[in-house]
Write a structure and sequence with these properties.
By secondary structure, this protein is an alpha/beta fold. Helices cover 47% and strands 8% of the residues. Helix 12 runs antiparallel to helix 13, helix 14 packs across helix 15 and helix 21 crosses helix 24. The protein is elongated, with a radius of gyration of 40 Å.
Amino acid sequence: MYIPISRRYRPQNFDEIVGQAHVTETLKNAIKQEKSASAYLFSGSQGVGKTSTARVLAKSLNCAKGPTITPCGKCSSCEEIAKGINLDVVEIDGASNRGIDEIRNLRENVKLKPISSKYKIYIIDEVHMLTAEAFNALLKTLEEPPSHVKFIFATTRPHKVLPTILSRCQRFDFHMLPVEVIIEKLKEIAAQEKISVDDDALLIIAKNAGGGMRDAQVMLDQVASFSKSKIRSQDVINMLGLLEQDVLFTITEAIFDGKSDIILDQVNILTNSGKDAHFICSSLIEHFRNMIVISSGNDDGKQVILSNEDREKMRSLSSKFSLDELFYVVYTLQNALEFIGRTSLGKIPLEVALLKLARKEKLIPLSDIMKRLEKLEGSGGPAEYRSPYSPSSGYTPEQSSRNINPPASYNKGAGADMLKKDRTDEAVPTEDMTQPEVMDQSAVATGTKDIDITRLKGIWPEIVRSVKVKKVSAGIYLGEGEVVGFKDNMVIVAFSRLNSLHKEALESKQNVDIIQQVLKDFTETDLGVSFIFSQVAEQPVENMPAGSAAAGSAPVPETPSLSRKIEPIIKVALDKFSGKIVKQYFVKEED
């Protein structure tokens, strides 16, 4: 009867266990010092050697020469354990013996002494499949087992094991095996089995083994049956149903060149050969991930597992894409993969995603976009966009459907005259004027001798728009303020304390220069700008003091105490980060 390679080459001692030195060295030292634990938990992905290590440990403890780190393999105990027929080493499948009744039987059996060995050893595979009741029934026995009993648990899901069980076991985490370790072991097996296989074929097998030696051995056994002559990489690809690297390169080049017909043909060929859209999309994501690694300069031969020829071809192809483009491709394919899993549309989401990538324009790196925006802000905006009321637009008041006074610079005399007031008139405060906190009230209403604050306030929205053309952020912040008057040839703009951050941003020299230049364009006068805090009036007051700038307008209510409404957690955050409240909303409590 033929015995599969994975069984014939199962490790029979600690030295034959590959890639898990941190486990084997610890176990050997414990055996040497006679400090073996009563319970072990071996965790790790499938095929990495958990059960094999458990059997080797059982041999070492029950060998006729033992306990020893080098079991003889010839005594009856070692031979029976290797064949799985030893009555003192009981292997239990946790998936099919997961109930409380099975664990109760185990509790009764542990009381019995071993038949012919030193220890009675229970190996429970996939222990996480036990029910919570079964785990609880095992707790007492696990914590204080008889001196002749050892437990070895194996699991691929250690997070599903109850913490009370974990706390009573010595835990060993088995690592996934590196590709080079798997290849080396497969070469040894191929030499002993007289299997002719090339290095590229072994590389593909090791890459698709998922870090498990058993899976790699199974694939080697399968490929050996598939090919009568020397096993080549194409044989492995055909047998395992993988995507050829050349196909991935072809689709990548079609995306770069925008050739939609090639993309559709390749997807159609792959799906007709039995490969589903989910598998194709996953393979493409992995492929572009490798391109990102190579493009970023992190390819050390371990991150991207390819043959030397394919690696050079991928490096050449990666140079055609920027990193931002590769990230965009992966993001698009990831969304397509999720869509494929949620629907029954088959290959359609994949085709749409690939066609979208093929038809896209070349992506501009974000850093270049930021540099362009900074350059536009410094130059006053893009040439193709002009404010309808900018000096170069040529608009006149009659041409404007909104009938807003334009800057004087594009209609000499007319605009300036509209902003100049009659010297015999006196400034009259408007109803929506607010009272600044820190300036003399009489200064708000007086203004300068040539500028009419009322008319300036009328064109203020256009001034804000022109500032926004030069610098977007400054225009947005300025729009939160309100012109309240003049003092010492300065335009006074008031802000609520809730917009204090806006005020602070506008006080930078760059923003002040932009605003003053726009004011000069509109008024033909060199004006400064000053920013103050003001409070929004809510209710009119009939008895305002005579001469007040806000006479006839609403009073300035006292700023409410924000601290009384701030939650304790907000106070802690403010203290921790030296922050300030920009805006706060109060909820009126119902009676």
